Amino acid sequence: MSQRYSSVVKPSSDPPSSLSTSSLKEDDPSWEAAANDELSVRPSVHRKFLGKGQPFVDYKRVRVTAGKGGNGAITFFKSSRNPFGPPSGGNGARGGNVYIVASKDVTSLNGVLNRYAAPDGGNGQGKQMHGADGRDLEVVVPVGTLVRFTDPPVSISVGHEDPVAAEEIMEKHEGEGQEFDEDEDSERMRLINKYYKFRSGYTPQADRIEMLMERLPYESASDAAPTVGLSFDLTTHSERRLLARGGRGGPGNPHFQSSEIRGPAIAGKGQPGTTVWLELELKTIADAGLVGLPNAGKSTFLAAVSNAHPKIAPYPFTTLNPYVGTIDFPDFWTMTVADIPGLIQGAHRNVGLGHRFLRHVERNRMLVYVLDIAGQAPWDDLAVLKTELEMYKPGLTSKPTLIVANKADMGAVARDNLDKLKAMVDVPIVPVSAMERKNITRATAVMREIVEQIRKNDGDETLQ
Ligand SMILES: Nc1nc2c(ncn2[C@@H]2O[C@H](COP(=O)(O)OP(=O)(O)OP(=O)(O)O)[C@@H](O)[C@H]2O)c(=O)[nH]1
Ligand SMILES: [Mg+2]
């Protein structure tokens, strides 16, 4: 390498203002020096991974149903000595809950199913054997997923309480010698049938119905609380939230024994689990987002600095989905970098791949503009990128910034452009050759310094 660059990094007046770039100025390393101490460079890209992988999904609608509670049992402990033994029905168990968990190990909503249903709780058995609780289910989503509870699709009706079934029950009990006062009694029978079950052939008498009405399980506020419209954001690894609560199990028949009722042929029914509809939207959270025109070398840079193996090719729009890689520093400090598909002029109006991916720029801690420094006018490219980000969401460009002047290996043009760019902008600029893996550690060191500063200011690992 014959080129030498006088200054590698320019001190920044951009936020964060407290960021010290003095250490970066101290030893302006040349290409050769930088190339010799490439600690974080992976020697080879595993070819077999190139271009493979799962489709990227960043929006999904999901239906989640918690498990139904198990029914209580109606059994009696009979023996030769005691043919009318005491009631011995076990309780039904609660149905499985459904939780949503954020994980840094998944990067797309691709693995999320359309429907989830937690297992039901087990029914009670004879000999006081209670059912087994339904297993809890976890929906695993990437960190940065927004969860919104929505209305059910119009064509499906939700109701756990089925008015038609209640009608049928009413009809069944008509003509059985019991007089029903139309409205009131049908409502009572509906409730009784919702919460209790009877041994086949058993018809509860009026006084039993009275007793059962008195001890109806009360519905807690959280059971009935409407969730539609609620939303939350999963921003940290292993954050866990309850989506749907499993139904309670019904008590077994010993619970209905009293001085009057010696052999209760009654047990509690398991309650249905709640059903909710969700909208999941992924807005990738990475420490740094790579923003650049198509073909600028973003993917090559990501492959050079991180453990990721994105597809790299000499045509625009090679990268069609955001791709997150992790940079591992020798002292085990890590940061994440997102390769975002190329932007072009008019992206905010949906030109090119459009604004679909701009949402993934929103929540990165810092921006890394990757410019093709050997191109016609890299400063124009930078202006286009900044304009597109601002048009999509005002204020987006005010994040801490680094410019990676890529393709600096391309001779005199690159060197001249770099000098011109340095004179024009007031942001740290690091010339690199992502392809030849030169000056990469320099770039990652600056990125680390900026990210460390932001994390310190934020006070924790979360990001809003
Ligand atoms: N000479 C030279 N070529 C490079 C360098 N970095 C990347 N390239 C080449 O530039 C082309 C585009 O690289 P990519 O990494 O696919 O570019 P990208 O920005 O990810 O492009 P899109 O995914 O299409 O937005 C490839 O042919 C790379 O080999 C570099 O430092 N020097
Ligand atoms: Mg790419």
From TrEMBL:
Region (Disordered): 1-38, 245-268
PROSITE patterns: G_OBG, OBG
Domain Obg: 54-285
One GO-annotated biological process of the protein: ribosome biogenesis
Keyword Nucleotide-binding attached: yes
Segments passing through the bilayer: none
Lineage top rank: taxon: Eukaryota
One CC-aspect GO term: mitochondrion
Protein name: Uncharacterized protein
Organism: Geranomyces variabilis
